[in-house]
Amino acid sequence: NGIICECHPGWAGEDCSKTACKTECSFNGKCHEGICACNSGFYGETCEKRECPNDCNGNGVCRDGECSCLPGWLGLDCGDADYKKSIHCAVFCADDCTSKCAE
Fold it and tell me: How does DSSP classify residue 3?
C-alpha cells in the first residue's frame, strides 16, 4: 500500500511487529525474534566477539580472534610447544628430541 513504517526502538520488520536485535548483531549474524544467531567465527550476545582458532588449545588467551600464548607455547592456535622454554622439556628430551631442547 506504499506506507513505510518507522519502528520504535526495539522493534523491526515491515510492520514493526518483530523484536529487534541490539546493534544489528554487529553485522556478524542474523536476528531471529530478538536473538542474534552468529555467523561462524563469532559469538556473544550481539556477535561482537571473534572466536580464536581451536580456542587456543587451552594454552593461551583469546583476544579479538587472536591467541596470546602462555609461556612455552607457540603458533596461531598455541598448539606448538616451545621446547626451549617448556617446563615439560625434560620429559620430551628423555628420548630422541634433544635437538628441540638445545639452545
Answer: -
d(CA 57, CA 81): 11
Residue with the three cell numbers 594454552: 59
Tell me how far apart the alpha carbons of residues 25 and 75 are, in angstroms, rounded to a whole number: 30
Nearest to 78 by CA among 63, 57, 62, 64: 57
Chunked mean pLDDT (size 10), the chain, 103 residues: 81 86 91 93 94 95 94 95 64 53 48
Q: How far apart are CA 38 and CA 25, in angstroms?
A: 7
What per-residue confidence (pLDDT) applies to 18? 86
Helices (H) and strands (E) in the chain, counts: 2, 10
- Whole-angstrom distance, CA of residue 69 vs CA of residue 49: 18
C-alpha cell of 15? Answer: 510492520
